[in-house]
């Protein structure tokens, strides 16, 4: 419907996948038609996760990709009906380079403290590890090092870790501070996915508190969102078999490992685990917001300070 709505409004050079995720074959077809693709994603977390998954596909095919993120609450159909084709084309003109967009999202999640930059580097090099073109890979490493204000060798070190993980058919590093897949936050995320797998109530709890967006690992986030989406409209049934929700081999491996995760024996224990995860997220979010408050105080930006304190209060109300 989105592609048809754009076509009817006069935006003719559009295409959409039919109920499937974007694949390398799709990008190969696009490469034969244009040199630059503008990707249109919803502004929700699922749209952002889709952007993350698409990066290596476009980089490997040598297709320049830009990102158009629609305003909150809109998809292409609703936006073009409300604002028209000219407004849509104006947004397309302002679209951003895909790699830069994802890097900015990672910085927004993790901050610019030394620990935050380590997390950003690990997250972005995990994307670059699947890039075949050495020239393109080198260019992106230089850009990332410049953006994070770190030595290029530091980024290359993270990239070698991620590439080694892929070559060994292991899950890439998830906790960038630990440099290994078994970091404490990674284990917590897997445990939460485990209780979501066995408990629809846990899925509802994660959904109501908006916790899916705060999984650090992109595949963990994607799986949490899919488990929530798989609930029936009333939020009661378990939905389809969880293993069928995986879109990639990486996600299938993660789901298969959940069977080995130790999960609470009852719903009360599942709820307690989700609350524990929420407390960790709250602590990390509050720490990052406090850093931003200090930065705003140094600038004398009272408006930003009030807004940031408001965010902290909202976090405490929601996850207190």
Structural class: mainly alpha
Order of helices and strands: HHEHEHHEHHHHHHHHHH
Shape: globular
Count of individual beta strands: 3
Total number of helical segments? 15
Termini separation: 41 Å
Q: How helical, in percent, are the residues?
A: 55-70%
Order of neighbouring strands in the sheet with most strands: 1-2-3
Task: Tell me the CATH architecture of the largest domain.
Answer: 3-Layer(aba) Sandwich
Biggest beta sheet summary: 3 strands, mixed
Number of domains: 4
Q: What share of residues are in beta strands?
A: under 5%
Instruction: Assign the CATH topology of the largest domain.
Output: Dna Topoisomerase Vi A Subunit, Chain: A, domain 2
Low-confidence segments, given as residue ranges, are 169-182
CATH class of the largest domain: Alpha Beta
Mean pLDDT: 80
**Radius of gyration over all CA atoms, rounded:** 20 Å
């Amino acid at each position: 419907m989105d592609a048809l709505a754009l076509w009817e409004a006069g935006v003719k050079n559009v295409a959409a996948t039919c109920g499937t995720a974007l694949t390398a074959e799709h990008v190969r077809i696009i490469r034969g038609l244009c040199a630059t693709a503008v990707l249109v994603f919803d502004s929700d977390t699922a749209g952002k996760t889709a952007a993350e998954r698409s990066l290596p596909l476009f980089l490997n095919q040598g297709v320049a990709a830009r990102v158009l993120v629609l305003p909150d609450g809109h998809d292409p159909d609703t936006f073009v009906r409300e604002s028209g084709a000219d407004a849509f084309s104006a947004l397309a003109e302002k679209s951003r380079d895909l790699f830069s967009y994802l890097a900015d999202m990672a910085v927004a999640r993790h901050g610019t403290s030394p620990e935050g930059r380590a997390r950003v580097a690990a997250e972005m090099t995990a994307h670059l590890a699947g890039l075949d073109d050495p020239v393109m890979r080198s260019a992106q490493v230089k850009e990332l090092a410049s953006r994070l204000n770190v030595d290029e060798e530091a980024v290359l070190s993270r990239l070698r870790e991620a590439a080694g993980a892929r070559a060994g058919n292991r899950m890439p590093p998830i906790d960038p501070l630990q440099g290994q897949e078994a970091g404490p936050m990674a284990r917590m995320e897997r445990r939460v996915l485990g209780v979501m797998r066995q408990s629809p109530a846990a899925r509802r709890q994660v959904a109501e508190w908006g916790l899916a967006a705060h999984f650090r690992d992109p595949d963990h986030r994607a799986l949490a969102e899919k488990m929530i989406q798989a609930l029936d409209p009333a939020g009661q049934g378990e939905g389809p078999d969880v293993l069928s929700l995986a879109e990639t081999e990486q996600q299938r491996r993660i789901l298969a490992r959940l069977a080995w995760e130790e999960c609470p024996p009852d719903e009360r224990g599942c709820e307690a685990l989700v609350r524990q995860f929420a407390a960790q997220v709250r602590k990390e979010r509050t720490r990052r917001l406090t850093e931003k408050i200090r930065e705003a105080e140094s600038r004398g930006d009272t408006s930003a300070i009030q807004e940031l304190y408001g965010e902290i209060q909202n976090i405490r109300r929601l996850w207190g």
